[in-house]
């Protein structure tokens, strides 16, 4: 699938720059964004149980999300591996890979981790992917949720997603607005949202 031509990319970048000068954020318009922005975000924004939030991977089209979460008084953090993308990050931004989140967050301190479009878009090496989800499990509280959005096409699937061992520690989370724990969007790249919940091991006699 061919993307926009170079002149078109430059044109849109200039437009975004002008909009940004006037404090107007830009967004991507497609079906997987509609689900993310109009179905997934509103649920978590309105649920008081999800206060401590980490969003992984920042780009020009995610900058506007910062305001949505910050204005709702969430303790909202972003993490992005490329230092230059700090400009798209939240007020509380970390420059690092998701595989190192245990260096930045205490165990059981997060309510929600959203990792959209990162698996297969830089988070590719098997060991990094396993570590990223293993550390997510550690940093989430009992009942905390991990959302992973990924493209189910060969070019963007470093290895079969369902074979990711560290995700097996989680249980599927039936996301109430969609009434399922996996939702495949109607996109040419089959962008898929998977919802996981951390359920601690019950203590003996508990
Ligand atoms: C396709 S963009 C997705 C941006 C955003 N998360 C979204 O909802 O679309 C992928 C971003 O993830 C970043 N990224 C790749 N590997 C990463 C990692 N291991 N940890 C954190 N960010 C990473 C890339 O630098 C890039 O900015």
Automatic annotation (TrEMBL):
Supply the SUPFAM superfamilies for this chain. S-adenosyl-L-methionine-dependent methyltransferases
Q: What is this protein called?
A: Methyltransferase type 11 domain-containing protein
Q: Which organism is it from?
A: Bradyrhizobium australiense
């Amino acid at each position: 699938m061919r993307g926009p031509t170079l002149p078109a990319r430059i044109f849109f970048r200039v437009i975004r720059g002008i909009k940004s000068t006037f404090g107007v954020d830009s967004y991507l318009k497609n079906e997987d964004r509609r689900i993310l922005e109009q179905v997934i975000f509103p649920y978590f924004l309105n649920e008081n149980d999800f206060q401590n939030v980490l969003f992984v991977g920042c780009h020009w089209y995610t900058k506007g999300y910062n305001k949505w979460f910050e204005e709702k008084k969430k303790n909202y953090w972003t993490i992005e591996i490329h230092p230059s993308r700090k400009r798209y990050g939240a007020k509380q931004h970390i420059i690092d890979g998701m595989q190192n989140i245990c260096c930045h967050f205490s165990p059981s301190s997060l309510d929600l981790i959203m990792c959209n479009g990162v698996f297969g878009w830089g988070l590719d090496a098997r060991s990094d992917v396993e570590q990223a989800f293993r550390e997510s499990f550690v940093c989430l509280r009992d009942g905390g949720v991990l959302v992973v959005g990924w493209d189910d096409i060969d070019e963007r699937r470093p290895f079969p997603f369902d074979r990711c061992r560290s995700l097996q520690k989680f249980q599927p989370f039936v996301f109430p607005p969609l009434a399922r724990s996996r939702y495949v969007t109607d996109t040419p790249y089959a962008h898929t949202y998977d919802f996981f919940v951390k359920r601690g091991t019950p203590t003996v006699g508990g």
